[in-house]
């Protein structure tokens, strides 16, 4: 794991201890989610959802609805790919999707530098939210468990020079809202909620969801 990723939040993550050991599949190509899982002590494999498994927010959807829907799609896609695997018949798929929100304005991953610049200027000096939807999917039964987690944070007022430095660093790429909390930017502050949620996977809630899976999971509708 890169040294620059070792934030305080990484040292205090709950450790993954399943009552009945079973394979875990992370349905994500995000290195940040993989690093969070590793730091928390989980052993897992990575499998990418097929192209097109992700989608854009639909008119009228809330941030929580979007991230839960997309996490569901990712988990369902990977579970479908693995449904015929004898070795992974007992596996549990973990999928997530993260989105920023400023009121009713939803902020996904910037499509280019100008889009990232627009998002940062919009968030400048504003409290806002980061939502992550998490879906667990049992391959053998098709039962699944979906929840979303929200973190409140605030971006300090920053000038164009700081924004341009951030754009030139390319650290906006692939990150909802055009920033990554794990990058150590001193212009971001958590107001309430999970820090790991802002990075892309709420580890505290994930540990609880794994324990509670049999109690709260539901069959495919």
What would you call the shape? elongated
Residue share in helix: 25-40%
Distance between the termini: 39 Å
What amount of the residues lies in strands? Answer: 15-25%
Q: State the low-pLDDT regions, or none.
A: 1-7
**Tally of contiguous helical segments:** 7
Number of domains: 1
* Average residue pLDDT: 86
- Major beta sheet summary: 7 strands, mixed
Structural class: alpha/beta
**Radius of gyration over C-alpha positions, nearest whole angstrom:** 17 Å
Strand tally: 7
- CATH architectural group: Alpha-Beta Complex
Outline the secondary-structure elements:
Layout: H1 8-11, E1 24-26, H2 31-39, E2 45-46, H3 63-82, E3 92-102, E4 105-107, H4 113-123, E5 127-138, E6 144-155, H5 160-169, E7 188-192, H6 195-199, H7 203-216
Parallel strand pairs: 1-2, 1-3
Antiparallel strand pairs: 3-4, 3-5, 5-6, 6-7
Helix pairs in contact: 4-5
The gist of it:
With 221 residues, the protein is α/β, with parallel strands linked by helices. Helices cover 33% and strands 22% of the residues.
């Amino acid at each position: 794991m890169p040294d620059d990723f070792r934030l305080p939040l990484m040292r205090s993550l709950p450790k993954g201890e399943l009552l009945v050991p079973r394979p875990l599949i992370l349905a994500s190509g995000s290195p940040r989610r993989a690093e969070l899982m590793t730091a928390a002590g989980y052993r897992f494999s990575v499998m990418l959802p097929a192209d097109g498994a992700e989608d854009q927010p639909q008119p009228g959807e809330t941030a929580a609805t979007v991230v839960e829907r997309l996490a569901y799609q990712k988990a369902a896609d990977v579970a479908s790919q693995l449904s015929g695997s004898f070795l992974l018949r007992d596996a549990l798929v973990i999928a997530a999707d993260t989105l920023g929100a400023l009121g009713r304005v939803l902020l996904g991953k910037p499509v280019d530098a100008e889009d990232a610049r627009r998002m940062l200027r919009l968030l400048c000096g504003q409290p806002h939210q980061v939502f992550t939807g998490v879906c667990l999917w049992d391959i053998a039964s098709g039962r699944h468990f979906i929840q979303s987690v929200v973190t409140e944070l605030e971006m300090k007022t920053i000038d164009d020079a700081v924004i341009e430095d951030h754009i030139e660093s390319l650290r906006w790429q692939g990150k909802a809202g055009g920033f990554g909390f794990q990058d150590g930017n001193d212009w971001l502050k958590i107001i309430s909620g999970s820090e790991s949620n802002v990075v892309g996977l709420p580890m505290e809630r994930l540990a609880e969801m794994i324990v509670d899976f049999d109690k709260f999971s539901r069959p495919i509708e």
